[in-house]
Design goal:
alpha/beta, single chain, 7-stranded mixed sheet
């Protein structure tokens, strides 16, 4: 009757496991043998699945992954939320769950660009990642070649020495525009023009997307300076090395500017599915005031604007609020405004000013919603 968490086992497997940690109500174990494989098992498509800590469910078929995600939500609502028999609908999956990420964050190690090994900061060298965009892969290979030929050092977390810390690639699937961000532990990049040309050549080798016909083009190369001895990926200062400071993305009928530090949903295909579902549940008639909390660059709020009377977004990151207001202007949306501040402070202020929030959208960070905010949401009494 005790839950035992075993890395490498999947739901339905009968396994032998050696217990490594024992708690009062659960335990951890190390897989020693698969006695009877589960019907849910699938063959990992990725060559690095055993080393890389990225895609932890690759040993399961995609259908089983979707079922597991539904069960995880149910379990959390029951165990942590204390809700009996919660209504959780089936997880809406993708037609093709590959090459969907529009943002790649590659840590850079000695002779390695890839992703971290599970539960460590050891970089696994990955020449291919099947969930990242192809431009991201190409730019990683170009950076690796540049570092090899020009003897450029990788950052070492233990000593705090070395230059290149991370490569971040943002790909706008709707327009084909690509941004490369080089996070460095220094003032500048030696022979940076050479790297820009290598990256440009790498992107030009790609063929247009066969489904959409969109051609990829390198539109922005940014240097981000992070000299802090910290696990934070990006520093505060961004310098445009080549091209534009932002790239443009097209989602449905809307256009969005994406800056180096702005948050944007990483799966653009499922983003549309998600927002359409939110709109369906909101049941807007054109008379409602929609309040979008933790609004980021305004994507959800702006998506709702054509069907609402007014949209008000609240976000604590100043650059994101500037992006949101600019995105409203780009799309000619005049019934949306975005406020910079902590949501738990700004929402009560709006209510005091007499704003009636008919619909409230919550897209909080991983840490979740502040209890003060949830109280304010209840006080607002949205439909």
């Amino acid at each position: 009757g005790m839950a035992v968490f075993v890395d490498g086992a999947v739901v339905g497997d009968v396994v032998k496991a050696e217990l490594t940690k024992l708690k009062k109500n659960y335990a951890f174990g190390r897989l020693t043998e698969i006695v009877e494989p589960s019907a849910n098992r699938g063959e990992p498509a990725c060559n690095y699945s055993k080393e890389c800590g990225g895609c932890s469910l690759q040993s399961m078929s995609y259908e089983s992954q979707l079922q597991l995600k539904k069960k995880m939500i149910e379990d959390k609502l029951v165990r942590l939320g204390g809700i009996g028999n919660p209504v959780v609908h089936d997880t809406i999956g993708m037609e093709s769950p590959w090459r969907y990420r529009n943002k790649a964050q590659f840590p850079v190690g000695e002779n390695a660009i890839g992703f971290y090994k599970a539960k460590s900061h050891q970089v696994v060298n990955c020449d291919q990642c099947l969930i990242q965009s192809e431009p991201a892969e190409k730019l990683a290979m170009a950076l690796k070649e540049y570092m090899r030929t020009d003897h450029i050092s990788a950052y070492d977390e233990e000593t705090g020495k070395g230059l290149i810390r991370h490569l971040i690639v943002k790909t706008a699937f709707g327009t084909g525009e690509v941004m490369a961000i080089l996070v460095i532990n220094g003032k500048g990049l030696p022979n940076g023009e050479k790297l820009v040309l290598m990256m440009d050549d790498a992107i030009n080798e790609l063929v247009p997307n066969p489904e959409t016909g969109v051609e990829f083009s390198l539109e922005s190369v940014i240097v981000n300076i992070n000299k802090k001895k910290t696990s934070e990926i990006m520093g505060d200062e961004c310098i445009t090395l080549a091209g534009k400071p932002n790239i443009l993305e097209q989602a449905g009928k809307l256009s969005f500017e994406i800056s180096p530090k702005s948050f944007y949903q990483v799966n653009p295909v499922q983003m549309i599915e998600l927002y359409d579902k939110a709109l369906e549940y909101a049941g807007l008639t054109g008379k409602e005031t929609v309040v979008d909390l933790y609004c980021g660059v305004g994507t959800i709020g702006l998506y709702c604007a054509s069907q609402a009377k007014k949209v008000i977004g609240i976000e604590s990151i100043k650059s994101a609020v500037l992006d949101a207001n600019r995105n409203a202007v780009i799309n000619g949306i005049v019934n949306a405004e975005f406020i910079c501040g902590r949501v738990e402070e700004e929402l009560p202020k709006l209510l005091e000013e007499g704003v009636k929030a008919d619909v409230i959208i919550l897209d909080p960070p991983r840490s979740g919603c502040d209890p003060v905010l949830l109280e304010a949401v209840v006080t607002a009494g949205p439909e």
